[in-house]
């Protein structure tokens, strides 16, 4: 379930951790992962194709036990990584590590190296991934009143996913982020469309600014954010009903006919 604030990243991080083990197995079965051999260690990515802001699961093997690890892109840019077990960024008693790395939002399209180094710098392994453009996004309407939002929601379209890929939708504001709704499948041209109607009383059912993001199941493909604004309903401007003036007393007997 933008695009990206720390809250959005935390949502994707939690979801990626859940699927990390399955992704590693799938990548190995499909033969899509590239393994680079260092002097005594290796690092294996779950995918070799990723977008800026996307995730790649890294499996490190053959390092010394309980060594602190650091990860870099092109040997210069530190990578944000999150151990799959929720612990420290270090190898286990067997010298192994599994974790998720987030590609920088400004990563240039093209080939890049990902390197892992132990604390002493004596053991280093690297692999290569290809960064591809983020799927683009659009949302309709981009601004709407709260009552319309609660009733009809918004429609977001994302273009640039792999045809047939299962895609999830997420929403975020300045305070939180969550996966929402059901997954959808990208069409033959890589497009996928979601309609989002907020749950009344929820975090995203109020006046404010929101960002919708679409991501592949393994979060290697993360779209550009689709941003929209919800405004307060305008007060009624209808003219007030006329008010009758005071009655005029009758100074003689009134006569009614008919």
What features would you describe in this structure?
- The protein is mainly β and 258 residues long.
- It has two domains: 32-131, Immunoglobulin-like (Sandwich); 136-231, Immunoglobulins (Immunoglobulin-like).
- The chain is 12% helix and 39% strand.
- The chain has two helices and 18 strands.
- It has helices at 6-30, 146-152; strands at residues 36-37, 42-45, 49-50, 55-61, 69-73, 77-78, 80-83, 97-102, 110-118, 124-131, 136-140, 143-145, 154-159, 166-172, 177-185, 191-196, 208-216, 226-231.
- The chain has a five-stranded antiparallel β-sheet with strand order 1-2-4-8-7.
- A hairpin with a 4-residue loop joins strand 14 and strand 15.
- The radius of gyration is 28 Å and the shape is elongated.
- The termini are far apart.
Tell me the β content.
Answer: 35-45%
CATH superfamily of the largest domain: Macroglobulin (MG2) domain
Q: Which ranges are low-confidence, i.e. pLDDT below 50, for 5 or more consecutive residues?
A: 1-39, 253-258
- In CATH, the architecture of the largest domain is Sandwich
Distance between the termini: 74 Å
Task: Write down the overall mean pLDDT.
Answer: 83
Number of helices: 2
Report the CATH topology name of the largest domain: Immunoglobulin-like
* Share in helix: 10-25%
Quick recap:
12% of the residues lie in helices and 39% in strands. The strands form 4 sheets. Strands 1-2-4-8-7 form a 5-stranded antiparallel beta sheet. Strands 3-10-9-5-6 form a 5-stranded mixed beta sheet, with no helix packed on it. Strands 12-18-17-14-15 form a 5-stranded mixed beta sheet. It has 2 domains: 100 residues, Macroglobulin (MG2) domain (Immunoglobulin-like), CATH 2.60.40.1930; 96 residues, Sandwich (Immunoglobulin-like), CATH 2.60.40.
């Amino acid at each position: 379930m933008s695009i990206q604030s720390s809250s959005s990243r935390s949502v994707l991080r939690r979801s990626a951790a859940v699927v990390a083990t399955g992704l590693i197995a799938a990548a190995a079965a499909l033969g899509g992962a590239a393994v680079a051999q260092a002097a005594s260690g290796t690092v294996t990515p779950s995918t070799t194709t990723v977008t800026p802001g996307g995730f790649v699961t890294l499996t490190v093997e053959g390092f010394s036990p309980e060594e602190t690890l650091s990860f870099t892109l092109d040997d210069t840019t530190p990578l944000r990584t999150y151990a799959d077990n929720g612990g420290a960024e270090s190898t286990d008693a067997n010298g192994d590590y599994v974790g998720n790395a987030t590609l920088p939002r400004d990563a240039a399209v093209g080939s890049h190296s990902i390197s892992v180094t132990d604390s002493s710098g004596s053991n280093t392994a690297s692999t290569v991934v290809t960064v591809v453009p983020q799927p683009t996004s659009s949302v309709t309407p981009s601004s709407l009143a709260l009552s319309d939002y609660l009733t009809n929601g918004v429609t977001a379209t994302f273009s640039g996913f792999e045809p047939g890929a299962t895609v999830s939708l997420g929403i975020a504001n300045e305070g939180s982020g969550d996966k929402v709704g059901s997954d959808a499948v990208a069409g033959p041209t890589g497009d996928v469309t979601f309609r989002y109607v907020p749950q009344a009383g929820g975090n995203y059912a109020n006046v404010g600014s929101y960002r919708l993001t679409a991501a592949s199941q393994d979060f290697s493909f993360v779209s550009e954010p689709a941003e929209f604004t919800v405004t307060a309903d305008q007060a009624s401007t209808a003219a007030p009903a006329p008010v009758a003036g005071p009655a005029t007393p009758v100074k003689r007997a009134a006569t009614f006919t008919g």
